């Protein structure tokens, strides 16, 4: 990087902070901070939903998969995400929007107190926050890895720089700042992605290979196969189910995009836009990665540095800075949205249970706590980022695929399926059992069993078994021990209907410990 590249990077950081300061004027209460007051247009929500699902892991971990295996990086990652969001546009997006518009909640997990009980809500809230710390930590580590390639600064310095800049704009501006910065980041990503695509096509022509002749090169032998290596059919099916839950609200930050739109119909439109972007745009981003074995030689066994090396080799200064800004835009978009979601969960769901004074917070006090929580979460995730490459977690892509994908099912199934009428019989017993046994299955297949099997448990089973265990138990226990009380059925009716008909009658107040922790609505 030279002075021009640094100018582009510093200018980008300045714009992000300015957007956060401008967005601060639009945040008057907790609802504005967490759900944009339900006033976000569908197209902005859709772009924000799309951008908040990316990170620099794509340019490190998935670049390594593309370098090693080829097109399977698209077939087993962005394609199932696009399909999952398309399905969720009908199945989940409208219902999640009604959590705000009809139940008047500001956190995706608030409704779980009434849908199940307080214990279930707290179990999912605390475990989800802990998983998010690890997940976002992997994202910080990914962008810091790329930054070290270009600038030579240490991993920890890169984590500190990106984390602090993100903390400034997302803490003061809330979800509005997240969405508006993600819109700007989308434009930057578009320019950077096209620049890299064109640079690779030109380089292939200069080498006499050509756009269409590349696949015949020996270095890309077998790279046109959709399912190879550990990424087989079982992995693809498991990943589709995981992404169906994760990218429609299971990881919380995407749920906020649906909640932020004015109506259920607008939430559905935003989901369809996000699905279309996930299907088309990654093809542009992945093509240079597929071609990377022809252009560079990775210095790392997993190929995770291939995209960074190719960028340095092919792009002139200025454009190089723009592509680096693109790396940052992905990671900062995802991490800021995650921070906002976790702040919502802690402020609305956890704090009132562990701290009596939190039950009577004013709007101003709640907003201050939300901002403090955002900073604390970012700090903890940055600390976790320094440990991502430790023996406990493994490399970056291991954290993202094995830990996040493997643990997603047990945490998301009770939340997401609890919205749907066919699963109305599943109550607290089904939810807590599926959650706890899914976590136990994850630990067993990834550690005791994995260590005692020759060659280890294949990756496809490491991520699919916890999901299968949770799903089967959630459905089975619902039939063995149905807990569909009138109060719970009323909640389900609320999120499945619009209007003021009989099915959308006022939700009865849940009995028991839930009453003791009733929270003010934002």
Account of the protein in words:
It is a single chain. The radius of gyration is 22 Å and the shape is globular. With about 525 residues, it is mainly alpha-helical. The protein has a single domain (about 5-390), classed as Sodium/glucose cotransporter (Up-down Bundle). It contains 21 helices and no strands. It is found in: Cell membrane. Belongs to the sodium:solute symporter (SSF) (TC 2.A.21) family. It comes from Streptomyces davaonensis (strain DSM 101723 / JCM 4913 / KCC S-0913 / 768). Pfam families: SSF.
Q: What are the secondary-structure elements, in order, as H or E?
A: HHHHHHHHHHHHHHHHHHHHH
**What is the CATH third-level topology name?**
Sodium/glucose cotransporter
Please estimate the helix content: over 70%
- Describe the main β-sheet briefly: none
Structural class call reads mainly alpha
Number of E-type strands = 0
Q: Could you tell me the strand content as a percent range?
A: under 5%
User: Helical segment tally?
Assistant: 21
Outline the low-pLDDT stretches.
390-394, 500-522
Shape: globular
Report how far the terminal alpha carbons are from each other.
46 Å
CATH first level = Mainly Alpha
Membrane topology: Multi-pass membrane protein
GO molecular function: symporter activity
Subcellular location: Cell membrane
Region (Disordered): 501-522
């Amino acid at each position: 990087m030279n002075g021009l590249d640094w100018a582009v990077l510093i200018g980008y950081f300045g714009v992000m902070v300015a957007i956060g300061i401008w967005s601060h004027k639009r945040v008057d209460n907790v609802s504005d901070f967490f759900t944009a007051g339900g006033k976000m247009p569908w197209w902005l929500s859709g772009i924000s939903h799309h951008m908040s699902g990316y990170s620099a892991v794509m340019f490190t971990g998935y670049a390594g998969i593309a370098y090693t295996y080829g097109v399977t990086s698209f077939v087993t990652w962005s394609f199932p995400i696009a399909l999952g969001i398309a399905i969720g546009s009908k199945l989940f997006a409208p219902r999640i929007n009604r959590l705000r518009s009809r139940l008047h909640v500001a956190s995706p997990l608030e409704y779980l107190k009434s849908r199940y009980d307080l214990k279930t809500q707290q179990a999912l809230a605390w475990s989800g926050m802990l998983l998010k710390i690890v997940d976002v930590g992997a994202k910080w580590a990914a962008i810091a890895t790329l930054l070290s390639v270009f600038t030579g600064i240490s991993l920890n310095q890169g984590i500190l720089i990106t984390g602090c800049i993100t903390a400034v704009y997302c803490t003061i501006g809330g979800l509005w700042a997240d969405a508006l910065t993600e819109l700007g980041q989308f434009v930057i990503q578009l320019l950077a992605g096209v620049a890299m695509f064109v640079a690779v096509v030109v380089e292939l022509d200069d080498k006499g290979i050509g756009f269409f002749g590349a696949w015949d090169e020996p270095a890309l032998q077998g790279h046109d196969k959709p399912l190879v290596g550990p990424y087989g059919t079982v992995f693809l099916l498991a990943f589709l189910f995981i992404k169906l839950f994760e990218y429609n609200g299971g990881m919380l930050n995407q749920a906020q995009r649906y909640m932020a739109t004015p109506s259920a119909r607008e939430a559905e439109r935003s989901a369809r836009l996000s699905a279309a972007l996930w299907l088309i745009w990654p093809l542009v981003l992945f093509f240079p990665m597929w071609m990377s074995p022809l252009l560079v030689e990775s210095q790392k066994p997993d190929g995770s540095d291939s995209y960074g090396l190719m960028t340095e080799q092919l792009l002139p200064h200025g454009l190089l800075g723009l592509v680096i800004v693109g790396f940052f835009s992905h990671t900062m978009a995802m991490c800021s949205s995650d921070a906002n979601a976790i702040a919502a969960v802690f402020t609305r769901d956890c704090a009132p249970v562990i701290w009596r004074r939190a039950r009577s917070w004013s709007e101003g006090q709640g907003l201050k706590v939300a901002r403090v929580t955002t900073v604390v979460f970012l700090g903890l995730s940055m600390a976790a980022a320094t440990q991502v490459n430790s023996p406990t977690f493994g490399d970056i892509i291991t954290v993202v695929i094995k830990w996040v994908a493997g643990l997603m099912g047990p945490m998301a199934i009770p939340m997401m399926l609890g919205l749907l009428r066919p699963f109305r019989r599943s109550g607290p017993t089904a939810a807590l059992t599926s959650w706890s046994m899914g976590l136990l299955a994850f630990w067993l297949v990834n550690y005791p069993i994995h260590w005692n099997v020759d060659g280890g448990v294949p990756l496809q089973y490491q991520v699919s078994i916890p999901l299968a265990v949770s799903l089967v138990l959630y459905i089975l226990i619902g039939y063995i021990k149905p807990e569909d009380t009138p109060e719970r059925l009323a909640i389900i009716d609320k999120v499945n209907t619009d209007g003021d008909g009989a099915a959308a009658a006022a939700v009865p107040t849940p009995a028991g410990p839930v009453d003791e922790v009733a929270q003010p609505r934002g």
